[in-house]
Amino acid sequence: MVARPRLARRLRVAELPALTLVSAPAGFGKTTLLAEWAGTAGADGARVAWVSLDRRDDDPTVFWSYVAAALASAAPGVGLAEDAAALAAGTGAGTDAVVARLLNELGAARDEIVLVLDDFHLVESHEVHDAVVFLLDHLPAHVHVVLGTRADPPWPLAGRRARGQLLELRAGDLRFDADETATYLNDVMGLSLADGDVDALEARTEGWIAALQLAALSLQGRDDATGFIHRFAGDDRFILDYLVNEVLDRQAPAVRTFLLRTSILARLSAPLCDAVTGEPDAKAALAGLERANLFLVALDDQRAWYRYHHLFADVLQARLLDEQPELVPVLHRRASDWHEQHGDRPEAIRHALAAPDPVRAAELVELAMPAMRRRREEATLRRWYDALPAELLPDRPVLAIGLVGARMASGQLDGVEALLDGVERRLGPAADAADVVVVDRAELARLPAQTAMYRAGLALLTGDVEATTAHASRALEHSAADDHLGRGAASALLGLARWNVGDLAAAEHRYADAVAAFHRVGHHADILGCSRALADIQAAQGRLGAAIGTLEDALDVVARHGPLRGAADVHDGLAELRWQRNELDEARRHLRTAAELGEVWALPQHAYRWRVASARVAALEGDVAGALALLDEAERRYDTDFSPSIRPVPAVRARLQLACGDLEAAARWVRGAGVAADGELGYLREYEHLTLVRWLLARHRTGASDTALTEATTLLDRLLAAARDGGRDSGTIEVLALRALAHHAGGDTPAALASLGEAVGRAAPEGYVRVFLDEGAPMLDLLRAAREQPVPPATGEHLTRLLAAAGPPAAPAPPPVSPAGRRAPTGLVDELSSREREVLRLLRSELSGPEIARELVVSLNTVRTHTRNIYTKLGVTNRRAAVRRADELGLWS
Amino acid sequence: MQYELRVGGRLGPRWVAWFDGLHLADGDDGTTVISGEVVDQAALHGLLQKVRDLGLPLVSLRQVPPEG
């Protein structure tokens, strides 16, 4: 080993920027340099996480699971082990989520952390590149990324260079200079060459380390070093070719044969080499090669696995192709078979494709599909399919369906319909069963259900609800009773389709089935998404208690399995339900948690729903301007994904404007929304029609119209019938409440009280509050009057509750977090980070450590780390003291 | 499409199989000209990657117009 202090000096951990690039062609000693440096950096107290990338890591799921695993093992205090495992098992929320959580966890670590990614040029996936750039842009100051690569990554580097955020070591830096060449040849390799000879070699190789290594090997034990060097320097053959040839020529024929035959292997072990060469002496051969320094690198301490230096292997493979082309497919097939027998199917596939033996590769891909799908490694699947000839697919329906799945999972719909047609033709009654080539019989049985599901998915994408329902029903019919995953997915899709046409009873049953099915197969993220929909439907049915129960169950899943996509939405839902029950502190707590979780752990709807829920809370606190601003943002971020659009933001805004007396603005909404009192009613427009009723009542109150009250009353009667027909009890309650107001406005107090009594009677068992209190003073008068009447006890209790709640709202706890708050300096030597402030705020509450961890969605260890840091910064040793000190310092603003 | 790549270092006829049957010719300045039919851009980039992975300096690349 040649010590390279001039390079080591540039890699001091304390001075490293966010990104260090070691970019040079193969054979410039990048890996050696980085490995040695990693050792010293470790000794200096930095935590070094190392990932040696290979072609398989060009898949976001695989890539990030290795990165998470490496970071988890290098920095055990950083809570990433679960993420790595979740990604590997395919239960993770997706790689964006993992990257975001990675950043959060890294932020809590105290040591310097270095992530080394070697052979980064093997990553071509846009997704991985985008995520790595995101990671770099948000890296905490004590974390550094080092890339070893043969090509500069395809990102903007100039900006980083200009800002001093990039350290580069390039070929020019990595080449052996004259001193290093001399040290290597004479001291390390013991060659005792004359100065002239050393110079000649340096000139010819230009300091290319791999070439010097080969030259040194060729010179060992040679009498006429100068003669060899002279010949070498005078030959203009490609250096590697010349030198590898020299080295090969000096080997015994058996060794030479071994080298050539095993050159096709990415990794070598004795049993594998025996199988490929057909000779039983691989163990001795490998040991001999390692001793002779013939470019064999041990991959583990037990010497079970090796690999060749890439350059050496490439030249060997070229020789093999030239000398014995007919042998190459045979060798690949032997390697493929061995890997398949030893549980490495991806490697078996790689060799089958390289042979080339597309039929064998197709069989293996078909067998590999279910596991790849489960592990969400669609990028790898798509790569394999791209390498298979298209002609293979028509006769292989199971294989073809796998491609449909991989494409749809990535949103690439080209050719999917044609593939589905092809599969159905092969399965249809007219098909000849003998033509079908299938390796995985179990998957063949699932095909009718799967094809129907994919068709349902396509129909959903084009908004064809009827077709979605038809196909999803068929999928359910064809699914085996124990195929819980298939049945769950089909039920969820059916639930969505029924929900979209307002068939709440059917939708509720389907979603409940889906949640149960997903529980059985442990598909936790899907449980969250379906629970969210189920809760919405139950709330529409007037079953607030059931809706809250559904979402609380979903939170249990999150508590047990860590953050999942949809967790933020569950909190949004609970915030809305608690708000309806006027449990405002609870509502605020859920909104805060949802904000902490952020977009990363959210479904598309979260962005707008959180803002609508927050607007409602803000309005209650008297912050109308804030509420309107939130609603504007909500409108911009409006995305119901595929759920029915039952609460458009303009209608929510219009209600707020009406409550503030802004009839002009509400009138603009009426015109723009195209709602009319005589329009067609139904679930989808119920909220808007109820908003229209409020507008009509307001017009009547201000005397702006003589007909408004009659219109309102007629509309309310129609809405009541529609709500009852549709099983929408929450709509019924709201209609009855508004009807009471209408009767009262028309002077018919007994009718008003009757209507209100019925509304409150229905509302009581479920705890509806805001639907009454949001109507303001007129409703309060009626509620007081109703309290005077004889009413059933439950109704009476609820009336009391409503009137008590109508007092001024309780002083709010700190409002939902806005991202960039500016704070006055606190007089601390070391300011608290924003994360630490969040933990501190929770330390003030009664929550225990584990509860705080759950609240912030991090590991308990991370909370402890933050807490320790907080105590240190505040100069205290316990929780109470920390809160007291924070009070003294005024840290709560 | 016909392409012509020039790389630094003389490759012998032994390398023809490695370069998938493309034509190899010695340049006069210690370079090698690799030429022939390349199916599409993806194949071209695959070829460039082979060159890169061998550590062969890439000197020039040009598309050869079809014979008029």
Q: List low-confidence stretches of chain A.
A: 809-825
Into which percent range does the helicity of residues of chain B fall?
Answer: 10-25%
Gyration radius of chain B, to the nearest Å?
Answer: 11 Å
Hey, which two chains have the biggest interface?
A-B, 23 and 18 residues
Characterise this structure:
The complex is a heterodimer of chains A (893) and B (68). Chain A has 893 residues and is mainly alpha-helical. Among the domains of chain A are: 5-174, P-loop containing nucleotide triphosphate hydrolases (Rossmann fold); 178-249; 834-889, Winged helix-like DNA-binding domain superfamily/Winged helix DNA-binding domain (Arc Repressor Mutant, subunit A). In chain A, the strands form 2 sheets. Chain A has a 5-stranded parallel beta sheet, sandwiched between helices. Chain B has 68 residues and is an alpha+beta fold. Chain B has a 4-stranded antiparallel beta sheet with strand order 2-3-1-4, with helices on one face. The two termini of chain B are 14 Å apart. The longest helix of chain B has 13 residues, at 41-53. Chain B has one helix at 41-53, and strands at 2-8, 23-26, 31-37, 58-64. Classes of the chains: A mainly alpha (893), B alpha+beta (68). Chain A binds chain B through residues 25-27, 150-151, 208, 210, 236-241, 310-311, 314-315, 317-319, 321-322, 325, and chain B through 7-12, 14-18, 30, 32, 52-56.
